[in-house]
Amino acid sequence: MIDKDNFTLSVIIPCFNEKKTIRAIVDRVRAAAVAKMEIIIVDDCSVDGTRDLLKSEITPLVSMVIYHDRNQGKGAALRTGFRHATGDIVLIQDADLEYDPKEYPRLIDPIINHGADVVYGSRFSGGEAHRVVYFWHMIANRILTLCSNFATNINLTDMETCYKVFRRELIQSVTLEEDRFGFEPEITAKLAKRHCVFYEVGISYYGRTYEEGKKIGLKDAFRAIYAIAKYSTLSRS
Fold it and tell me: How big is the CA angle at 143 (ends 140 and 147), to the nearest 5 degrees?
């Protein structure tokens, strides 16, 4: 049972080539309305100067910075971050500026007050502000969410969202395998198999373009389909 008046939020920030935004997102995370927070950055072997910025400016501002010696992918960076988390609740925060840390209180509320095990921040639920970007990304997200729901029998609106929040002991008990964006359907399937209590909350979204540094692509969509099939029907984890 989490003490709602005395809990710690662990924010895991996987980072790869985010020199332009990493300082801004750290400042926004630090300003979030959460009393006790640890911030763990996992740099996935950035080569654009992000590491220099982490070492020169950002390390004193966060709880921990972990450096991968080779690029492995977002899922691998999250595995590293989860292992080091010590808070009562664990939240994933991308290193870009697409998701707003001001929404942390809304995201953790279902765990604190309503018995949730996991909370997804949905870009397609509610009336929050959204930057209008790629039509086909929206279609792909909805198709992947539909396929995931079909395989897991849970009714999410945004399986691919960055904002996923977990009870720490739960996420640390799951064996994760996907190194890249296949993490999203993998963790969804594995938690659904455990009959975890899922909640969704509507969030704002300020999507960026490929020119601005967006990384997910078509091959990740195909991997997500593979992961939906693999972890929903084969894995016992």
Answer: 135
For residue 177, the domain's CATH number is 3.90.550.10
pLDDT digits (tens, 9 = 90+) for 63-93: 999 999 999 999 999 999 999 999 999 999 9
For the entire predicted model, the pTM comes to: 0.91
Query: Residue 127: pLDDT above 70?
Result: no
85 inside domain: yes
Does some domain include residue 70? yes
What distance lies between CA 227 and its chain's CA centroid? 17
Specify if 4 maps to a domain. no
Mean pLDDT for the chain overall: 91
User: Residue 125: its pLDDT value, please?
Assistant: 82
Question: What is the count of structural domains for the chain?
Answer: 1
Q: Which residue in 201, 8, 205, 5 sits closest to 110, CA to CA?
A: 201
Q: Is residue 1 part of a domain?
A: no
Q: Name which of 23, 53, 22, 41 is nearest 81 in CA terms.
A: 41
Is the distance from CB of 82 to CB of 170 less than 8 angstroms? no
Residue 118 — very low, low, confident or very high, per pLDDT cuts 50/70/90? Answer: very high
Two structure tokens written together for 205: 């979204």
Query: Which residues form the domain of 84?
Result: 9-233
Cβ(160)–Cβ(179) below 8 Å: no
State the Cα–Cα distance between residues 161 and 121, nearest whole angstrom.
7
